[in-house]
Amino acid sequence: MLKTLKLSARAFSESIGEKPTITQNYVGTRNSMPGADYLEKVLKQFDSINPAWLLLGDGEPFKSGDVPAQNQTTISGDGNNVASGKNGKAIQKTYNLSDCEKERDTYKTELDKAQQQVEHLQAQLATKDALIASKEETIDLLKAAFNRPN
Question: Most buried in the list 63, 116, 117, 147, measured by CB within 10 Å?
Fold first, then answer.
């Protein structure tokens, strides 16, 4: 599975939020059996993995024979990028298309709210400018009424 996903045990572990040594215990020479929490993390992160194959060894590793590269993007970086982890070490995280669409929708909602707030603030500025102009006109009228230059 790791070879098909083109991930090292470390990158795979980081993508599901586990320590690399845990994954090494499962794929290495120890041949330990993963617990339910670990398997749940794998299935949540990689929705293209066939749960029957992962849990029981039945069928193909990926649902309908699909390899996840078709709808997932792996983003990696160095110590200066957003994808960097602790101590400047690079990490890899896999994003599904549906995750990106949800994030896009969230940003769209935030943008709409921000645009409404900008419109509201612009209306308040226009009102402020109108009040200042009215105040200055009132002062000019009062000065003229009392025939005073200042």
Answer: 63
Is the residue at 30 inside a domain?
Answer: yes
pTM, rounded to two decimals: 0.44
CB atoms within 10 A of CB 27: 14
Nearest to 1 by CA among 29, 107, 11: 11
The reported pLDDT for the residue numbered 6 is 84
131, 139 contact by CB (below 8 A) = no
Q: Which residues span the domain enclosing 64? A: 2-70
Burial (CB count <10 Å: 0-12, 13-18, 19+), residue 128: exposed
Please count the structural domains in the chain.
1
